Structure formats: C-alpha cells, structure tokens
Amino acid sequence: MSNDTENNSQEQAAATQLIAGVQQYFIPGNVTVTVAGVVITPTAMTAALQSRVSTINASITAKAALSNAVAAEATTKATTKAIVSAIKQLALIMYANQPEVLTVFGIAPRKVPTPATSAELAERAAKAKATRIARNTMGPKQKAKVKGVVPVPIASAAVTVSGAPSTGVEFPRFRGHSRKRDTRKRSDPWQDASDVRTPPSSRPMRSVS
C-alpha cells in the first residue's frame, strides 16, 4: 500500500468516527458550530463528513483500478509482442511490392536503397584515402614492413688511475733534484757563547751627515 492510499484510508476512518460521535452526542443535544460566519447544524455536519468519506472511498477505488489496469496492460503487451511482430513481418513479406496494401495494415513500406553513382563512389574513395593519410593508418602489409631499430650504445674510453682517486686537477711537477727539507736543529746565534757578534740592539748607530 502506498503512502497516499494509507493516508486516505486513515482520513476515511477518522471521518467515519466523527460521524458516529456527531450522531450520538450532537444530534440529541442539537449542538451547532459556526464556521466562517455560517451556523452548521448536526445534520449538516453529518452530511459534510459523509461526503468526505464517499470521496475518499471513490479515490481509493479508482487508484486501485488504475493500478490493476496498468499491470494488466504490461502483461498483455508482453504476451502479445511476439504475435504482433510476426504479423508485421508476414505482411511485409507477402506485400513487399504493394505499398497500398501495407498502408491498410498500417505498416510503412521498406525503403529501397538507391545505388550510389560513380561520382559518389569516387568521392567516398577519395575521402577514405585522405582520412587514412591524415590518421597515418596502415594496412597489415605496411605494418609488417615497419621494424624497430635498437640504438647502438657509444663506447666510452675507460681511464684507469692507480693509487688515490683523481680530483681532476693536475699539479706541476719539478724536474731534476727535489729539495729536501732541512730538519737539523739550529741554535740561537745570540745565545751561543762562541759567537762574538754583537746583537743588533747593542750596536752603535751610525750618524748620518
């Protein structure tokens, strides 16, 4: 049950209960109610509520009938689809050259394809060739002629350096005898007693004239 149908059923039940209350309590006491300036008697209340119940009931019945009709339509279409197709095919076969008969069946005659002219065929071929060239399309034989080429690596000269790794900077070499550092210990000439020279600080200054 859909939400709409469920709501209608609830409203219908509520209106029916209101009718029972009006008839049991409002009619004997002649209780009235004013709506938009109009006095509503118990009899009018009952009539309004009954109209509401009847309308909802009719709507529920119509919706149920519509749902059943839609389901029946779908079922009928599914079961008769193959028969309809067979009838159309039979009419097209029997009256293929009689379009006026096919019109009676409500079937449009099949269109007969018009053969292309030599000019149209030449134009199609030219377009196809231009398209293949633009897309670089190749056939099986053309593809078979295309071979891959493996690049040959360039051999580099290997340089072997013995000893410590080279820093890339060459230092000049001295030819001939290499000077050796004198590691002999020298004494202070001013502290040697055998040295009779006078220290520079005690020598007399020359006068400059």
Strand runs, count? 2
Which strand order spans the largest sheet, edge to edge or round the barrel?
Answer: 1-2
**Gross morphology:** elongated
Going by helix content, strand content and strand pairing, the class is mainly alpha
Uncertain segments are: none
Average pLDDT for all residues: 80
Radius of gyration: 60 Å
> What is the element string, with H for helices and E for strands?
HEEHHHH
User: Strand share of the residues?
Assistant: under 5%
Number of helices: 5
Structural commentary:
The protein has 209 residues and is mainly alpha-helical. Among the domains are: 3-78; 95-137, no CATH class. 53% of the residues lie in helices and 3% in strands. It has 5 helices and 2 strands. The chain has helices at residues 3-29, 42-94, 99-104, 118-135, 140-145; strands at 33-35, 38-40. A two-stranded antiparallel ribbon has the order 1-2. The relative contact order is 0.04. The mean pLDDT is 80.
